[in-house]
Amino acid sequence: RHPFQKMLVVRCLRPDRMASALTNFIRNTLPDGRSYIECDSTLNSLEILDSCLADSTPTTPIYFILSPGANVVADLDKKAAENGFQKGVSYHNVSMGQGQDVIAMSCLETAHRNGHWVILNNVHLMPKWLVELEKKLDEYAAEGSHEKFRVFLTSDPSNTIPIGILNRCIKLTNEPPAGLKANLKRAWCFFPKDYIEEADSKTKSILFGLCHFHSVIMERKQFGPMGYNMKYPFSIGDLRDSATCLQNYMDNSTGGKIPWQDLKYIFGEIMYGGHIVNDFDRLVANEYLNFYMKDELLDETEMYPFAEDEKGVSFMSPTPTSFDKYIDHIDKNMAGDTPIAFGLHPNAEIDFRTQQSNSLFKTLIALAPQEVSSEEGAATPEQVAKATASEILDKFGDKHFDVEELVRSLEEGPGPYQNVFIQEMEVMNVLLSEIKRSIKELELGFLGELTMSESMEALMMALYMDQVPDAWAKKAWPSMLPLSGWIKNFSDRLFQIEEWLLNPEEIPKVTWISGLVNPTSFLTAICQVTAQKNQWELDRLVTFTRVTKFMSPDEVDAKPRDGAYITGLKLEGASWEDGSLQKSKPKEMYCDMPIIHVKAVTKEKANVGGMYGCPVYMTRSRGPTHYFNAQLKTASPPARWTLAGVALLGET
């Protein structure tokens, strides 16, 4: 009876379900809401293009935003032929690039007068020329074009397309199917039925495993940083080329042993691996292939990695059969999407849906009107920014570190550890100076003594929206915290340095490594001190970790003889119990790690069995914030934690 109030309750209790709740609200509450949700999901690409052609006019181009695997030119070629346009005569296809602007203008002029179709491909490659195109289209509109004249534009997603062109166009994009089942069916149906039916049983089984690998690799990106550190343009073309290589291998084999290692290398390092530039993402792809590409695939085998602990969640590969029976098997046996299908913990779905919800509401807030009437009693952006700026200035106004004085006070000069903290102090001084300068400048703007510049406006809006201003973020550490959390974090970092200054000759008993701007330098210092102490070569040393039983720095009596104790890391994707990695508890997104002992050892001693090389990142965005690998004990195979996206994070 009260759908909006129901949504408010969902927002409070289960923010991860807000996207679904909002979808249901639009479908059931708005007039004809179903059409907003389903859009053209029941139409194929040719039918959608048909309806857009009916809506287009000589002054309304159709603009295709390209996506991996989409072939809009092939669809347009078919429609051009159906409408009686001949390629190269009355239907002009121009690929944009250096020197192509003259050819494009010539084709447009001819088409404008004679009623031809023109498609300009990859217009994002010539952003400056697009301004001329916009003017030319304005001229044609004023002059009046032939009634059959049509312009089609294609480009990758880009922010360099002039707004005038975007406003006048009908915009289309082809999104790949969502969900593991839809992707698997699409991958399998990509191959002609005759090709599958004629293949031998081994080829059918391996091809099905390859299609499953393709769909998993494609869909894993939905889990954000836990899925991949970076975004990759995987497409159906990778599957096609991999299948071609598979066929060549099978044709040349004499019915003997299948060369699994060769196939895994081609798929994981060349075809799909050719896109992957991050070492951990490459490891994920290779672990999937290790799981799928094995002799068991030729009969029936489990396709969900490490799913034996999960009740009722399973998908078996079928014994070799006909093309249609493979599709029936997918329809009947693959249930709805679950993170378990990817080797991830069910909590991964909560995390990515919560991020999706947060992104949605940030966008809504950004789109909301910023001017508030005084009658409503709400503070204006200027009032909020002024109060926040004043608080920050009160907190950090007198903070500054005297680096030169510290260096003079060190009797033996700065050692490796001292250099780390000196560098931290220098970064903090630069950041403090920028914060104080920009806030004082903004306050003068509020008083009317300075004209409000673009940078001052940006600072005001950031303070109002509880976001870290860009000018501050550039001089700080990677962070995804809102401004309020960032200020608290900044204050804690300053406190750690102040505590160290009380006894600068020694390192702290326990170092809050997440509170360092450059934690890599601290780890390097551990190796340097060990190398000096033992007269070892520095390039032979690596860091090695041992998780202690101490949960708080207060429990530690003294610093270790070798290396250092570190704290401030949380485990994502798994939990830490009884001294080893274990499955996460339901709805527990992060697990606080005990204090970790980091020391330097030779590379030979670091190769210990029963360990997972857990990547450590500064923030939950992962990617470029990685700074070292921690060795964590595990009873399960390390591949399980690799596929589960298990990592240690400094900031959550």
Kindly state the number of beta strands.
16
The end-to-end span amounts to: 38 Å
Give me the number of helical elements. Answer: 25
Shape: globular
Helix content: 40-55%
The residue ranges in which pLDDT falls below 50 over 5 or more consecutive positions are none
Radius of gyration: 30 Å
Q: Structural class of the secondary structure composition? A: alpha/beta
Strand order of the largest sheet: 2-3-4-1-5
- What's the pLDDT, averaged over the residues? 91
Largest sheet: 5 strands, parallel
β-strand amount: 5-15%
Topology:
Layout: H1 3-13, H2 18-29, H3 33-38, H4 45-55, E1 62-65, H5 72-82, E2 91-95, H6 100-114, E3 117-121, H7 127-143, E4 150-155, H8 163-168, E5 170-173, H9 180-189, H10 193-198, H11 201-219, H12 236-252, H13 260-271, H14 279-292, H15 323-333, H16 347-367, H17 381-396, H18 403-409, H19 416-447, H20 454-464, H21 470-473, H22 483-501, E6 510-512, H23 519-534, E7 541-547, E8 564-567, E9 570-572, E10 575-577, E11 580-582, E12 590-592, E13 596-602, H24 603-606, E14 611-617, E15 626-633, H25 638-643, E16 647-649
Parallel strand pairs: 1-4, 1-5, 2-3, 3-4, 6-8, 14-16
Antiparallel strand pairs: 7-13, 8-13, 9-12, 9-16, 10-11, 14-15
Helix pairs in contact: 1-2, 4-5, 9-11, 9-15, 11-12, 11-14, 12-13, 13-14, 17-19, 17-20, 19-20
